[in-house]
Amino acid sequence: MKIVVTGSLGNIGKPLTQILVGQGHHVTVVSSNPKKQQDIETLGAKAAIGSIADIEFLARTFTGANAVYGMIPLSFTEPDLGSYLRRMAQNYTQALQRAQVKRVVVMSGWAADLVQAENVEDVFDVLTGVSITVMRPASFYTNFYQSMDLIRGKGLMGKLLTLRYSGLWALLSGKTGLLMGNYGGDDRTVFVSPLDIADAVAEELLLHPEKKTTRYVGSEEMACNEAAQIIGKAIGKPWLKWVLLTDKQMLQGMKMAGLPEKLAETLVEMQAAMHSGKTLQNFHRSQPRMGKVKLADFAKEFAVVYHKK
């Protein structure tokens, strides 16, 4: 099969490309970074350098493909997250229609249907004669990588860093060894390895359901404080806790971090959906098959990188 993978060689794109090339498929990887071309070709794939904001580029790249994996990277420079996501989703639909692609697997988030600004899945409903699957992964393990300096507390007391991937947002204050957000503490959530997501996407790309389908993806369920303890133990900070903030405190923190007000409100809404348990209820209702990579496995990798820097 001829398969197009968007998202460059990111946390999902790289392992997904490796899986598909290993299966013998002809893979094209879309990246906006020309420096990624050699890395893409080294994996045995073809590089298509351009932006998903360019419909003409997407249509050319998608032409002749049997299937497309589509994802929209977040932008923290866009004050209106919902408007940005819908514009990019519409670019995809126009390009897919013009290229007459018959199978598309779209990356979303497990809180997408609960947060109006993030829910762009309906944009793809305009496609006719196209088999569509929406992926709803839970909170990524790899978000913890973005917290390293704050966990170390290198003079960053009082500064806030926002983290997000497919529904996970957190604030970390490294000097006190805390994870903070308007979900956390004893709230139960699902974490997921990008490797398990890549496996799931690879499976879906080879299927062709007649109706639009949704697939949730997770690796392990636990309380937020349990996750903090696993990461903390691996790096030698067993006291690491995940403190639950109010929505108001979270909103104030994001504004202090310089996020536009509308964007900050959307992010608080996402975490509030997780704190309420609605995201977890939807996940359980779908009864997905859990992945293989556990948080303890990831924590070992995290600790190696953490102690190198």
UniProtKB/TrEMBL annotation:
This is NAD-dependent dehydratase. It holds the Pfam family NAD_binding_10. Residues 7-119 form the NAD(P)-binding domain. Gene3D superfamilies: NAD(P)-binding Rossmann-like Domain, UDP-galactose 4-epimerase, domain 1. It comes from Mucilaginibacter ginsenosidivorax. InterPro entries: Ergot_Alk_Oxidoreductase, NAD(P)-bd_dom, NAD(P)-bd_dom_sf.
